[in-house]
Batch of 2 targets.
Target 1
Amino acid sequence: KTADDDNGHGSHVAGIIASSDNTYRGVAPGVTLGALKVLNATGTGSLGAVVAGIDFCTMYTSVFNTKVITMSLGGGGPYQVGTCPTWIDPAITNAFNAGIFVDAASGNDGFTNGISYPACAPNVVSVGAVFDEGLQADTVTPYTNRGVNLYLLTPGSVITSTLLGGGFGDKSGTSMAAPHVAGVAALLVDIRPNATPPYIENILKISGKKVYDGASSLFFSRIDARAAARMAGNPDKWLHDKRLTF
C-alpha cells in the first residue's frame, strides 16, 4: 500500500534527503527511500503506529538494507535526560541494535531547557535548526527546542524542497533539519558500509562547526557534510562524486 502524503510534509522531508533535481538537489540524491505513514492528515496519530513503523524498518532490515530512520515528528516537553518519556524506546533500541541510525526533530516550541519526544530518547540523535544564509547564518532558530540533550544542528529555515503534487517550495522547522542529518548519515554509510550508529553520530558531532546559542548559553555542532565525509576516510569518493554539489 502506498504511504500517501496528506499535506506535503512528508514530500518536503523526502526531497531534502533524496531530490535529484539539478537546482534543488537533496543531500543524498542516490539514496533509496522507504516512506512509512504513521500520522494522519492533521499531523497526529498513535504511538502504536510510530512503533509499528520503526518495527517494520527493523524487521525488514535484511530485505531493504535499512540504514537510517529519520522522524520529523514528536511532541511534549521540555524533556531533559532524566524526564524523557520511554513510550516507544524498546522499538528505537531494537532498531539501534540492528545497526540503524535514528534521528528525530527536536521540536518547534522554542524551549531552551529541553526538547520533545522521541528526540530526547536514548539511541536517537536529536536535531535542531539553524538559519542557512544571510546575516543570521548558523544562528539557532528561535523556534528550535534545545538543551543539553540537543546533539546536532542543521539548516531548517528557509528550506526549498519538493512539494506535494510537484514543484518546489519553502518550509521551515526542525522537521526540515532532521532529514539533513539523515542524508549525511546515508552518505557516510555509502563511504563506510560497516559504519555503526555511534560511529556516525560521533563523526557528525566532532566534524561539525561549533555554534554558540545565546538563548541557552550552550554550544552545539552544526553538521559539515564535507568534513564528515573526509573523516569517514574516503575523501576522493566524496570529492569526485558527480551527484553531489556544494
Target 2
Amino acid sequence: DPEGRRIAVNNSDRTSPRVAILELETGRVLADWRSQVGTSALCWSADGQLLAVGSHELDSRVYVWNVPRGVLASVLQGHFNNVFRVQFAHSGYLLATSSWDGTTRLWDAASGEPLALAPGTLHGSFAPDDRRLAFAVGGKVGAWDVAAAPECLTLHPGMPGNRSETPHVLREILQTADISPDGRLVATADEDGVGLW
C-alpha cells in the first residue's frame, strides 16, 4: 500500500480466486476475499482506500474493493480479455486498465463510471502530475495526454470527505443545487453525496 505497511496478494488460479491483504510487519491477514476478486494485476489507490484487481480472459472485469470497509466499491466491465495492468493516478480515484483486447480504459474507480477508451496498452504509470500515460500501440511507444478537470468531480459516498455510506445515485429531486459566482460550476447535494459539475 502507499504507506508500506500492508501488501495485497492474489491467487492466479482461476478455480480458487483469492485476494488477501497482509500486515507487512507481522504477516497477519487483515482481509481475505474469495469471491468477486480477480486473479491478475493489483493496484492501490494513492490514499490506500481502494484496491483494484484485474481478471483473466474468462472474466475480464476489474474488481475495486473499498479496503477499510471490506466491501466491493465497483465492478468495471468493458474489456474483452485478460486485464493485465491496473494503475491508479497519484491522486483521486482515476484508474487506467489495459487488456489483451488491445485497449486501455480510464475509469472513475469509486463509482465504476467509464471515462475514456483508447487503442493500445498502458506501459508504466501516470506521470507525477497525472497528466500523461505511456502507451504502446502497433509497435510504437508514446505518451497520451490525460485531460484533467479537477473542478468536475463527485465526492464519493463512504470515502474520505463525504460522510454518506450509501452509493451515489442522481435523484430526480435534489436537496439543493447552486451555481458558482463565475457561472462555471454547479454544486448538487442529496442524501447520498455531493457533486461538482
